Amino acid sequence: EARPTAVELLNKPAAESLGGGSADWVLVVGFEDNAASVAWQLEKFRSEHAGHAVEILDESASNAAWGSLVEFPATAPGTLAFEVHVPPSTTAAFAAEVDPGRWLLQAHAGNGIVRGFLRGEADLEQAAGLIEPLRRKADGLKGSLILPRCPAAWKTRLLVWGTPRAEWAWCEKLKKTLDPAGAFNPGRFVGGI
Fold first, then answer.
1. Closest by Cα among 152, 153, 135 to 144
2. Beta bridge pairs of residue 82
3. What is the pLDDT of residues 108-163, one digit of tens each?
4. Which of 131, 135, 111, 115 is CA-nearest to residue 123?
5. Inter-residue contact 53 to 117 (CB < 8 Å)
């Protein structure tokens, strides 16, 4: 059986923005090893997925594609972005809930990290209406949703650090121990710590 070193799932808008096809979902799979092993794994992968469109990139094109995927979180458009951490077995279920009309989506299917980047504009209430159902879905899958990118004025309303959790009390105690005067980045950590 083929053993990929990376598995990325992109929705149609994300794949199109990276120049990688126009299917509703694009799965990007990477293999590493010596040339003979990679060739065997690619052939095995192709046979295991017969009936699906499979495009195999040469080394140069592959390096460029992986570079684009690595840079995507920094270069994706939009003023609002979410990052979800869910159990890897639930990555596809979460991704299926994300509206491709509103979000470019990149999911690391092997580790359960899903990143979404808002397409177009939204005001604060529209953004809350988009984020809150996704946060409930992530919470329901025993995961979490944070906002690594959003306008500063929205941070309190949108809970950039996610749903308050019991362990935040420990973080607050630790911060008070290490920073009793509250001088270091006041209010910038989880729960306003």
1. 135
2. 116
3. 988 999 999 999 999 999 999 999 999 999 999 999 999 999 999 998 899 898 88
4. 131
5. no
pLDDT at 138: 96
Q: Read off the tokens for 145.
A: 């949703």
3-state helix/strand/coil string of the chain: CCCCCEEEEEEHHHHHHCCCCCCCEEEEEECCCCHHHHHHHHHHHHHHCCCCCCCCCCHHHHHHHHHHHHHHHHHCCCCCEEEEECCHHHHHHHHHCCCCCCEEEEEECCCCEEEEEECCCCCHHHHHHHHHHHHHHHHHCCCEEEEEECCHHHHHHHCCCCCCCCCHHHHHHHHHHHCCCCCCCCCCCHHHC
With beta carbons less than 8 A apart as the criterion, state whether 189 and 175 touch: yes
How far apart, in whole angstroms, are the C-alpha atoms of residue 119 and residue 14?
10
Please say whether the beta carbons of 72 and 14 come within 8 A: yes
Quick one: tokens of 140?
């329901």
Task: Write out the two tokens for 48.
Answer: 């295991």
From 35-39, 51-55, 79-83, 156-160, the region with the lowest mean pLDDT: 51-55
Which position has the token pair 């939009």? Answer: 78
Q: Which amino acid appears at position 137 of this protein?
A: K
Nearest Cα to 148, choosing from 74, 52, 94, 98?
A: 74
Residue the block writes with tokens 């199109």: 16
Mean pLDDT of the residues in the chain: 89
